[in-house]
Structures are given as structure tokens and as C-alpha cells.
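Is 6-O-phosphono-beta-D-fructofuranose placement plausible here? Inputs below.
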Amino acid sequence: MTLTSTPAWQKLKTHSEALRGASAFTPADIARLDDFSLSLNGLHLNYACQNATQETVDLLLELAAQQQVEENRTRMFAGDKINTTENRAALHTALRRGDNTPLLVDGLDIMPDIRATQTRIAAFVDDVRGGAWRGATGKTFKHIVNIGIGGSDLGPRLASQALIDYVEGVTMHFVANADAFDIDSVLAKCDPAQTLFVVVSKTFSTQETLMNARTARQWLTDALGVDAVAKHFVAVSANRDAVEAFGIHADNIFPMWDWVGGRYSLWSAVGLSVALAIGNENFRALWNGAAAMDAHFQSAPLHQNMPVMLALLAVWNRNFLDAPALAILSYCERLRDFPRFLQQLEMESNGKSVTRDGAALDYETGPILFGECGTVGQHSFHQWLHQGTTPIACDFIGVSEDDRHKPEHHRALLSNMVAQMGALAFGQKQAASPHDIYAGHRSSNLILLDRLDPYHLGLLLALYEHKTFVQGVIWGINSFDQPGVELGKRMAKGLEANSVSAGENGDFLSHLLQKILPK
Ligand code: F6P
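Reply from A.M.:
I modeled the complex. C-alpha cells:
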């Protein structure tokens, strides 16, 4: 039986017909603001502006039960190999656990390894920040350069940006792209004697990362000699041999494990750059926020479970209101990269077209995620959001606290966010000109943080990790592999080596490449 022929799905389909093109609520329904709201330790989800009724919620909860969300949740936390194509567990949650209860992967308790690595990270961070670990010329480090891409970049980059107020003593830099401008523009800002490179790559085979690391190493050795690498390069990887072959000393390698997916890895040594920037205490607060969301996700009844409700409402908009996209609108400049982070988290996890067992799907899975900061986006694509022919859903992210102590700015920021939610929900059904009609009933969530600190950022990121997981469970897909990135990598390697076989469009592509390369 395919998902679309199951009882819960069929009921939702019928229910959605009644709601399509209509408003589930009116401005008079003030009670919804309390009824459709969940909170956890200063993180709030308000879904009162969703084009949904209590009946919708009840039917979505039936779908969650039918798809065994709770059973699959238990399996993930227990270390079952739910990443079926790679035969791996998905245990990013183990990285932020507070207790040492044994957790077995392939018969081995992974907690001692996690704790040993965390101890090494903390000691290294204290040494660098305290000056015990210095550069080859004896100077302390003022520049931390994270070299990595995807999950080895986006999480650390987002966290360092969001927590900029907690960064002290160093300047953070991130290099990800193959485009030489990226590494050139960073190195131009750095002093070799005071620059520490953190090369992050789970596989240590990612072309862009290795190329950037080689360029960085050449820049350093040109300035300070080959012996300087031992003091100015550390690595984070699951592939020790490849790291040592690159020339980074074994003592400078921080491990990560195959049971942590790249896009779920900020909590591992992948977060080393962040810890170097904000210090161990603040990095632990990030973990603690995520751990609190884990505990909530594991224990809260489904109708009071924030990740579950966020996921179910996303499925409602995607599969029953036919929204092809989800806009992430952070009304907080320090969260401007949140859409980029979520694009990898959600689209690399749920951009799939077969079930875990490889069966074809007859329903949509992961939507397009995009976004911009508020209020900036209002002067960019919000026209499309309000009057375009394709209604989509929006997640508004806001921060209550005015930590800049500029009430005029803060009130304007939050007033604009609420106004956008209202205009999307209620529209403007009457107007002298048809150009001024707004259809309305366009769903949105409000995710509100009491303040933007490490703990609340940890809550927010774990909320979306678990939302992503629950959506994958509902859709019956594997949210922890990424086979779709391999073909392009293979073709690029072939083109670079000028050895693309005709069987893979080689002649066409090599001709195209020849046409565009500089003569
Ligand atoms: O995009 C594919 C991917 O494998 C991501 O899943 C991963 O985060 C990124 O490339 C970088 O991989 P690595 O950390 O192995 O360099």
C-alpha cells in the first residue's frame, strides 16, 4: 500500500479539499494565538497563522501515528542503522548527551570516544585561546580559518555569525568554494604568523576542501617554511589516513565518525572553529540547548511536540496545500545564513524520490527552501509571496530580546514581521483595483527565541534537525544519505582529467568545457 492510499492520508486529502482556497480562520479567532502555540525553555512555535484548523491538526497527528513517528524516533536515538543505504546509525544526538549511558554501535560503546574527543577539543581550545598553543614564530593566533564545505562549513559559519557577540580574541574566516576568490580574499586579511587553519572534511576527499587546504598550506609555507604546518594546521575528519597523507600530524587530527551525517555534525569536532571563537563554556551551552530539544522531542506527547508539529504542518502545506516551497524569513540579521544552513539540512536530507526500500514515490517530498533576512526580503521577493500565483509556506524566525537596546529599530523589525504574517494570512479581498487584491490564506509559522545566545541557538538548530527527520519518517525516505551529489562529482573529475567517457555525455560536456575555458 503506498502512502497516498493509506487511511490517514486519504482523510487529509478529503479535508484539504474543503480548505483549498478558503481561510481556515479569521482575525477574530484570537484564541488560536494561545491554542496553536508551543514553548520550550524560551523557544516558541506559534502556528496560529497556518491555513489549518484543529481538525487538520488532529488528522495530521493520525498520520504521524500511522507512520510510526514515535517508533522511528526511538530507533534513531538507540543507534539503529536507519541510514539504510549506507548501513549507518544517525547519532548526532549522542554528541550532545549529558550522560554516559552506554550507546552501542556495532557492539562498541561510542560514549568513551565521544568524551575523549570532547576533552581533547576543550583542551585545544583553552590552549589556543590562552596562548599555550602558539604559531611557529611564537605569536598567538588572531585568525581562525575554517576550510570545509557543506556540513563542514554551513553549521560552523552560521553559529559563528549568529553568536558574533560571543566571539572574542580571534577573527573567524570561512573558505568553502572552489572559486579562488574565496581563499584569496580570506588569506589577504590574514597574517601567516597568527593564522590557524582548521581543515574540516569527514571524507577528506572533497575536491574543493583539499584544493583550498593545499593553497592555504602553500601560502603558509611560503611565509614560514614547511615546519610551520605542524603548528598552523589541524584537521577534523573520519579519514585519518588521508589527513596524515596530506601532511597534518596525527596529534592534530580531531575525529568524527561515520554515524554523524555532515549536515548534522556541528556538535562534533566539526564545531571546533566555533569553540575556538566563542570558548568552551559557550560551546557547551550550544550543546545544552540541543540536548534540551532532544529530551523534549523524545518525551513530549506528539500534539505538544515542537519538531513533530513543525514537521506535520510542513507536510500539510507541501502535500495537501500543494506548496512547492518553504521560505525561511529570519527577522534577525545575525541569522541571515539560516536559510543556507537549512537548505542543506532539509534539501540534502529530504530531496529524495524513492523510499528507503527503493520504491518509486507517487507523492511530493522535500520542498524548495529559500529565504532572506527580514526586513530585507520585503524589498526583494515578498511581492511574489503575497500576489504570486504559487502560494507557499513561510517560517518567520524572530528574537524577542532587544539586545541592541534600540527600541525603535526592534519594534519596527518585529512589527514588520507580524505585519507580513498577517498580510499573508488575511490578504486584502476588497480593493478598487484588482492589482490591490491579496488572496491571503498563505500559511506561516512563527518561531521565536527569547534571546539569541548559544543555548537558544542550540534549541533552534535541533528543532529543525528533528523536524527534518520526522518529515522523512512521514514520507518513508532516508534522510541521512546523499547519493544525488555523486554523479556531478564524478563528471567533474572526469572533465578535469579530460577523461569523461562518452557513456556519461562525455563528448558533449568536454566540448562545452572547451568552449568556455580561457584560450
Ligand atoms: O554535499 C555532499 C557532502 O557529502 C555533504 O553531505 C557534506 O557535508 C559535504 O559534501 C562535505 O563533505 P566532507 O565533510 O566529507 O568534506
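Short version: The longest strand covers residues 325-331.
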